[in-house]
Write a structure and sequence with these properties.
Blueprint (H helix, E strand, L loop, with lengths): L8 H6 L7 H14 L4 E7 L4 E6 L6 H8 L41 E7 L5 E8 L17 E5 L6 H17 L6 H12 L6 H4 L13 E6 L5 H7 L10 H6 L16 E7 L5 E3 L9 H6 L2 E7 L5 E7 L5 E5 L14 E7 L11 H14 L1 E6 L2 E2 L13 H7 L1 H4 L6 E7 L20 H21 L8 H42 L2 H21 L4 H26 L11 H40 L5 H61 L8 H41 L6 H59 L4 H20 L12 E4 H18 L2 E5 L1 H5 L1 E4 L1 H19 L6 E8 L2 E6 L6 H4 L17 H11 L3 E6 L5 E6 L3 H18 L4
Parallel strand pairs: 1-7, 13-15, 17-19
Antiparallel strand pairs: 1-2, 2-6, 3-4, 3-6, 4-5, 7-8, 9-10, 9-12, 10-11, 12-15, 13-14, 16-18, 19-20, 20-22, 21-22
Helix pairs in contact: 4-5, 14-17, 15-16, 15-17, 16-17, 16-18, 18-19, 20-21, 22-24, 24-26
Length: about 1000
């Protein structure tokens, strides 16, 4: 009898050579964690140490499990799900692995691995070392390669001694194989083992948060040295920040979390890139993948199920409208069951052009970035992602190829969709994966699976997303969105031009005002007047003298009016102004009013005084009534001339608009008549004798549809013209309703203000992110300093010369550490829970924080008994920063005045009060004190009070200013009323529950 024998190389061929790459190998290890009923699986890539750790909190392995199952290639332990251990509290999971060779994928990541595993029913931790390079040696059998295994008591982790013991065992095995394996392989193995000399899993584990094997169960793989491609797979192409890295594309969306209404995934996956001892990034963080909110936000959604006959039944929502039930039959069924089985489909789609999307700019841009990186149609078996489906570079349904044939007919684009095809092991067992975990085997079931989905996409495109679709929701809404986008584009273009012209005119006027040009022009007017009046007084003929005085006065007053008009800048109607231009406009108006009420009024008074003086010198010869009438008539003549010019311009514009509107109306009518003429010509060319009744009906319906579409299109154009005319006429017939131009201008001003506010908020968000990073950096550094101080203490105890140095370092560090701990409640993400906040705690916090400053400035910080006894349920992370800001401002302004300097904390009827005896807030500033950017501090940013009030408003609190009995400023934090507080608390508790996992 003969039997098969297995060489050691079989392990290498079944493992490393079968896996497509490192990301696929890591994905396989994540799936093994799923089969072990893990709730968390985490990858930790330590770049400096060149180590990759894959760890989970599953059931782990006993010593016997490791020997009889993990070290057995092709084990049957996963063939029968009933043999997989599970607890009563855990929901039964389908088993993803089936071949018993997935663990061999470790070899694709690195040439050797330390395996750590502990079962809840085993008091020991199993610890083993596998060097995969030994399995590449030809000429040796599997049983020739020995795997050293040790056991460590519960509560301990292997350290450097344990690693050294395993390395020695492998070296002894290698020595025993001398002469049977190639010397090059032996040298490589020795070199690889030498990299483990400094490895201390116990020490390195302290840098990893999450699952630990000290007391809990689970399995860990410590792979080192890692393959040189791992760094690239994690980071991707450094020259292209927009392209997703291979590891990101493979591991993102490991569990199905994008479909609304789905239960939480059975296992959560993370992969941390530890770029240094202080910096680590979660490569596949939750925010990077599509969420249920993204799914509901998309322009179109489709959700339904393909039954065992291949027929789709589900809901289709176009542009957020009420979903409609839709059925797509499968022509290939012929009454028999499909080979692929029944499955679910949830699909979301975002229009490619912003003008055709209902999303706002921010949401559209955010989803567009996600779609470019991780867009596609994913396949999930038992809610765990299958590779490579979903990758944007793997168009497994040939969607882009079909689109290239006819984009107008096909509609769908692979890079604009995201969604889930949900299958399971029971209903879709004929859909079998390739051995290398890179997709389904191309069997009959898979071909039918693809055909079903391709037919579905073609049919839904015809039914909903073509101009001749039976459902006109997409066509009508898209046309409306495009029309609105085009109108906004034209308006924005016109507004930009008018805004730029206005700004240039404003700048020219301000330059002339600031250079004193009005004073020079007024001086010229007065000099000319003096010359004219002198000439009038010297005139011998009294009548001519009177005439000259009147003419001189009238000419001078008209010159003043012309000076005023030359500096008058009119703000364009219907055009919004950015914040900077609005500020320039306010400054100009103040300067113009100063010129008008001061210089020009004084000049007119001076002109009248000098003219009256000349008239008195002429005596009764000057007809005063004629002088009065001459001025009025001149003003009327000037006004009529100005009005006449404006009237002519208005009439020309009205006539031009009338011609344009009539031209467009006539063009619409001609277009419809042209289309009907073409229909009649085509109808005349049809031979109806050879057509059946059904063909006659089809032809008639086709022509009727063409006429209806042409009519609908031209009616839309005419209705738009009517709307434009009605808006203009409405504003003229009933002025109480307001001019639509002013309404548009008001709305646009609101939009521009919101955009300015968004830019300001973005700056604040960037500051917040920077603080978050700094907090992380400080925390990591503080831990390192704290640990090193403990190590230094033993040296200081043994060396008297080091004791003073150690004592000074420790005192300084504790001082810094105390300050850092003070700001712990200010971190919302780490302290996002509503608690009962006491006034005495706030007082102690403020004293600890500002003790040095108030002592230096000789300020007394006192809290009343009512303040100390006050309590409120609130977020400390919301209220503490407000108190810090108010006290910080008070200390600054108190330092500008003499003693005594008092700062008081008080409480009264739900109001928390911070007041002082400083200079107070000037009346002129009280209305602006909460405006963003307003500050009287040197180099102040004017952000603190504005942010404080906004943050309090979101929690239904209020922040107001009044005058303190002490003489200075009095800021009042008003608690929300009972009903509002209850609703706010409910919302806060919900937020807290949502953030529990992050914490």
């Amino acid at each position: 009898m003969a039997t098969f024998k297995a060489r050691a190389r079989a392990v290498d061929m079944l493992g490393r050579q079968q896996i497509a790459g490192i990301p696929t190998a890591i994905n396989e290890l994540f799936k093994n964690a799923h089969d072990a009923y893990a709730e968390h699986v985490i990858g930790d890539y330590f770049r400096e140490e060149n180590i990759l750790v894959i760890r989970d909190d599953g059931f782990g392995m006993t010593h016997r499990d490791f020997l009889d199952k993990w070290l057995v290639v092709g084990t049957e332990s996963k063939v029968n799900p009933a043999t997989v251990p599970h607890a009563q509290s855990k929901e039964r999971r389908p088993i993803l692995g089936e071949k018993g060779i997935g663990r061999l994928a470790v070899a694709a990541v690195g040439p050797q691995v330390l395996v750590l595993s502990r079962s809840a029913k085993d008091p020991f931790l199993t610890f083993a070392l596998v060097n995969w390079t030994l399995f590449t040696a030809p000429g040796i059998d599997l049983e020739d390669v020995e795997i050293p295994v040790e056991q460590i008591p519960i509560g301990e982790l292997p350290d450097r001694r344990h690693v050294h013991s395993l390395v020695q065992a492998v070296l002894e095995n290698l020595d025993g194989l001398e002469g049977r394996i190639d010397e090059t392989i032996a040298h490589t193995v020795r070199h690889e083992l030498s990299t483990l000399e400094d490895l201390d899993p116990n020490a390195l584990s302290q840098r990893m948060s999450g699952p630990s094997l000290r007391e809990a169960s689970g399995t860990q793989f410590w792979i080192t040295p890692t393959d040189e491609m791992l760094a690239y797979d994690v980071s991707g192409n450094p020259k292209d920040d927009q392209e997703a890295s291979p590891l990101f594309r493979t591991l993102i969306g490991f569990s199905d979390t994008m479909v609304p209404g789905n239960p939480p995934p059975p296992m959560v996956a993370h992969f941390y890139d530890h770029r240094s001892r202080e910096v680590s990034l979660d490569v596949i963080g939750d925010g990077e993948f599509f969420t249920p909110q993204d799914f509901q936000l998309a322009d179109h959604q489709i959700s339904g199920r393909f039954d065992e006959y291949g027929q789709f039944t589900g809901q289709v929502s176009v542009y957020g409208r009420e979903p409609v039930t839709h059925v797509v039959p499968w022509p290939g069924s012929r009454g028999s069951h499909t080979l692929c089985g029944a499955f679910q489909l949830n699909l979301a789609y975002v229009q490619g052009n912003k003008s055709q999307s209902r999303l706002g700019d921010e949401d559209f841009n955010r989803l567009a970035r996600k779609l470019a990186r991780v867009g596609g149609l994913y396949v999930y078996r038992d809610r765990v992602r299958m590779l490579p489906y979903g990758r944007s570079d793997f168009d497994w349904l040939d969607i882009e190829r079909e689109r290239s044939k006819s984009a107008s007919d096909y509609f769908w684009s692979y890079r604009r969709m995201f969604g889930v095809v949900g299958i399971d092991s029971k209903s879709n067992f004929r859909l079998q994966e390739k051995a290398g975990r890179e997709g389904f085997r191309a069997n009959a079931a898979y071909r039918e699976f693809r055909d079903l989905l391709q037919n579905f996409l073609v049919q839904t495109a015809r039914d909903f997303f073509r101009d001749d679709s039976l459902d006109d929701s997409w066509r009508i809404t898209r046309r409306e969105l495009e029309r609105e986008a085009e109108a906004r584009r034209r308006h924005d273009k016109q507004s930009r031009v008018r805004r730029a012209d206005f700004r240039k005119e404003l700048q020219r006027a301000e330059v002339r005002l600031n250079q004193g040009t009005p004073e020079q022009e007024v001086g010229t007017v007065l000099r000319d007047l003096e010359v004219s009046l002198a000439d009038a007084v010297s005139e011998m003929d009294p009548a001519r003298a009177s005439e000259k005085v009147v003419v001189a006065e009238t000419r001078a007053l008209r010159a003043v009016i012309e000076i005023r008009s030359s500096y008058r800048v009119a703000r364009p109607r219907g055009v919004a102004l950015p914040k900077s231009v609005a500020q320039d406009w306010d400054n100009y108006q103040r300067e113009f009013e100063i010129m008008e009420r001061g210089l020009l009024d004084e000049t007119r008074t001076e002109i009248e005084r000098r003219s009256s003086a000349a008239a008195e010198r002429l005596g009764s010869a000057l007809d005063r009534r004629r002088r009065l009438e001459a001025g009025i008539k001149t003003r009327i003549s000037d006004a009529q001339s100005t009005l006449g010019r404006t009237h002519r311009r208005t009439a020309e514009n009205v006539e031009s608009m009338r011609g344009s509107l009539l031209g467009q109306a006539n063009e619409s009518r001609r277009a419809f008549e042209d289309e009907t003429r073409l229909v009649m010509l085509e109808l005349a060319s049809i031979d109806s004798e050879g057509l059946t009744d059904q063909e006659i009906s089809d032809v008639r319906r086709s022509f009727e549809d063409r006429i209806d579409r042409a009519l609908s299109h031209e009616l839309d154009r005419l209705n738009q013209l009517c709307d434009r005319v009605n808006m203009a006429l409405g504003s003229g017939t009933d002025r109480s309703e307001g001019d639509f131009v002013d309404v548009i201008g008001s709305l646009e001003q609101e939009v521009v203000s919101l955009r300015d506010r968004a830019d300001e908020d973005l700056e604040l968000a960037q500051l917040g992110l920077a603080l978050q990073v700094i907090n992380h950096e400080f925390s990591s550094s503080i831990r390192a300093v704290r640990n090193n101080l403990r190590r230094l203490r033993s040296w200081a105890d043994a060396n008297k010369a080091l004791r003073p140095v150690y004592s000074d370092l420790r005192a300084s560090f504790e001082h810094l550490d105390a300050y850092l701990r003070l700001f712990t409640p200010l971190n919302k993400r780490l302290y996002r829970r509503d608690t009962v906040m006491k006034g005495s705690e706030v007082e102690r916090f403020l004293l600890d924080l500002f003790q040095e400053r108030i002592s230096q400035e000789n300020i007394s910080l006192d809290a009343t008994p009512d303040f100390r006894a006050a309590k409120v349920r609130a977020y400390p992370s919301t209220l503490y920063p407000v108190f810090v800001n108010l006290v910080d401002n008070a200390i600054y302004w108190l330092s500008t005045r003499g003693n005594p300097r008092m700062l008081r904390l008080d409480y009264s009827d739900g109001d928390w009060i911070v007041e002082d005896n400083g200079p107070g807030v000037p009346t002129v500033d009280q209305a602006r004190i909460f405006d963003l950017g307003f500050s009287r501090k040197p180099n102040g940013r004017g952000m603190g009070l504005h942010i404080s009030r906004d943050v309090l408003r979101k929690e239904a609190w209020s922040l107001s200013l009044s005058t303190s009995p002490l003489g200075g400023a009095r800021f009042i934090l008003g608690e929300p009323d009972g009903e509002t507080r209850s609703a706010s608390t409910d919302r806060e508790i919900a937020d807290t529950l949502a953030l529990d996992f992050d914490q």
